[in-house]
Q: What sequence folds into this?
């Protein structure tokens, strides 16, 4: 018996969508569970409700799923820096970031936009 799709999926592997060879039903498969889904269900949605579990612990996904860019003007020099946030992390065009891989601009944007 297949279960209905829960609000949240917790598993190690990300969910996948398959079509049952027996009855043609679309199913989401995650964490050894099979969930019945309708034909409009997308993998993007499943990924959005999915949280990876490793060793019984939930790994919170980054809140940033798309690349977003912000610009910050230096209060000291008036120079404008571009700060990029994306699934692979944050980046800034300032010299400080180039040296240290972190800088006050990223912290500022993070605080402002609660990233
Ligand atoms: Zn910076």
A:
């Amino acid at each position: 018996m297949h279960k209905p799709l829960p609000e949240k999926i917790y598993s190690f592997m990300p969910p996948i969508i398959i079509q049952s060879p027996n009855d043609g039903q679309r199913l989401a498969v995650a964490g050894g569970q099979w969930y019945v889904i309708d034909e409009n269900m997308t993998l993007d949605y499943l990924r959005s409700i999915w949280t990876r579990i490793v060793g019984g612990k939930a790994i919170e996904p980054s809140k940033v799923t798309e690349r977003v860019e912000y610009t910050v003007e230096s209060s000291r020099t008036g120079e404008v820096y571009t700060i990029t946030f994306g699934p692979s992390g944050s980046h800034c065009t300032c010299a400080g970031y180039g040296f240290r891989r972190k800088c006050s601009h990223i912290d500022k944007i993070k605080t402002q936009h609660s990233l």
About this structure: The chain is about 20% helix and 35% strand. The first helix runs from residue 43 to 48. Residues 68-113 form one domain. The mean pLDDT is 87.
